[in-house]
Design brief:
Elements: E1 2-3, H1 5-12, E2 29-36, E3 39-40, E4 44-47, H2 58-62, E5 65-67, E6 70-73, E7 81-83, H3 85-98, H4 106-119, E8 131-140, E9 153-162, E10 171-176, H5 193-197, H6 200-208, E11 213-216, E12 232-237, E13 240-244, H7 254-265, E14 270-273, H8 277-285, E15 289-296, E16 300-308, E17 314-316, H9 323-336, E18 347-349
Parallel strand pairs: 1-4, 10-11, 10-16, 13-14
Antiparallel strand pairs: 2-3, 2-4, 2-9, 5-8, 6-7, 6-8, 7-18, 8-9, 12-13, 12-15, 15-16, 16-17
Helix pairs in contact: 7-9
Bound molecules: pyridoxal-5'-phosphate.
């Protein structure tokens, strides 16, 4: 690994506003590593800078790109520490395999994440709910217009000190009955740009209708709940915690699987099965669905107050954190921020 003196200088001149928002303020350093001739080059830590790309760079045309979203926490100066970082790396490499890209070796992935965090350690916010959001990504850099898997790639890591993802309270969610996010055999389980690009038209509709998020349904039956565009979905029905089981059309969320482990540990029954939207709506109408929430690294856990149809029909759930979502959120965040014992060994403190 090569750390450029200019990167150290850039960090020493950096100042951070008190209110950072989400993803707007970037650390002035970045990590990059090139893949060429069938092998990875040296990991470099440089000042944050613009990239120069040839107009035929394959990612610009064919979207061969993947990314991850992870956080370093530093609550009250307890860190910086990471949460299940190897799970992010493993998912990154599963996304790479699906998108015909080379895997990134552990040494490169973890060193890049750690070194960017180490340089920026004075800028990992210390208030609860804040963190350093870390964005590893990789894209095809080979230049020519042929439609075939690229043979040259760039792996990079950038990082952004962040506050909370949602400013408002609970979420109003549109049931998307027209468009589809993913299909069996497709790339829905990969964290690749195309999945997010494909969700944006629905996001636009959601905003125009005055809602916050899209709830995607299965391409196969147009009834099974899948997930949101950047978060997994949970509902509490008759006291049991329900979430769609992971298939190749759903992103295997690290927050999701952590919440499942925590819920089971609390003695809550967890049901990971197909979750029909018709059944869910019935349960809401009968008062059997007492809570629903969305979860993900960026958002942590956010209550869902209501589901909506395009027609205007609304199904009200609960306008705030219910007892299960509140307890799960506090426990998860407590482990991430190191105020609660990490009995599952999820946390790595930066050395
Ligand atoms: C489509 C999608 N689903 C779910 C999640 C939640 O995953 P995680 O909890 O690992 O952040 C994300 C965010 O990464 C996502 O982009």
């Amino acid at each position: 690994m090569k750390i450029y003196q200019e990167a150290i200088e850039a960090i020493s001149k950096f100042t951070m506003p008190d209110n950072v928002g989400f993803g707007k303020v970037l650390l002035p350093v970045m990590a990059s590593c090139e893949y060429k001739d069938g092998k990875w080059g040296e990991l470099e830590i440089t000042p944050y800078k613009k990239l120069e790309l040839d107009p035929t760079c394959k990612v610009l045309h064919y979207g061969q790109e993947i990314f991850e979203g992870m956080k370093a926490y530093n609550f009250s100066g307890n860190g910086p520490n990471f949460f299940r970082e190897v799970d992010n790396m493993d998912r990154f490499n599963r996304s790479a395999a699906r998108m015909a890209m080379p895997g990134v070796p552990k040494e490169i992935f973890i060193n890049a994440v750690h070194e960017v965090t180490r340089l920026g350690k004075n800028f990992v916010p210390k208030r609860s709910g804040e963190s350093l959001y870390i964005r590893p990504f990789m894209f095809a850099t080979e230049c020519n217009l042929g439609i075939k898997p690229a043979e040259e790639f760039l792996f990079m890591v950038i990082a952004s000190p962040v506050g909370s993802y949602f400013q408002g309270g609970s979420l109003k969610v549109l049931i998307e009955r027209e468009m589809i996010r993913a299909c069996p055999g497709g790339m829905g389980a990969a964290k690749t740009g195309g999945n997010y690009a494909g969700s944006l038209l629905s996001a636009k509709k959601v905003k125009e209708l005055g809602f916050d998020q899209t709830l995607w349904l299965s391409a196969t039956d147009k009834d099974s709940v899948e997930e949101m565009s950047g978060m997994n979905f949970f509902a509490v029905i008759n006291g049991e915690l329900h979430t769609p089981k992971i298939t190749d059309t759903i992103l295997d969320g690290i927050t999701r699987k952590s919440l499942i482990t925590l819920a089971k540990d609390m003695g809550i029954t967890v049901v990971e099965e197909t979750l029909s939207i018709a059944t869910l709506i019935e349960a809401i109408k009968k008062g059997e669905c007492s809570e629903a929430f969305a979860c993900g690294t960026a958002a942590i856990l956010q209550p869902i107050s209501s589901l909506h149809e395009v027609s205007g029909q609304a199904y009200q759930i609960k306008d705030e954190y219910g007892p299960i979502s509140k307890r799960l959120r506090e426990t998860l965040l407590g482990i991430q921020e190191r105020t609660i014992e990490d009995k599952f060994n999820w946390v790595t403190v930066l050395k």
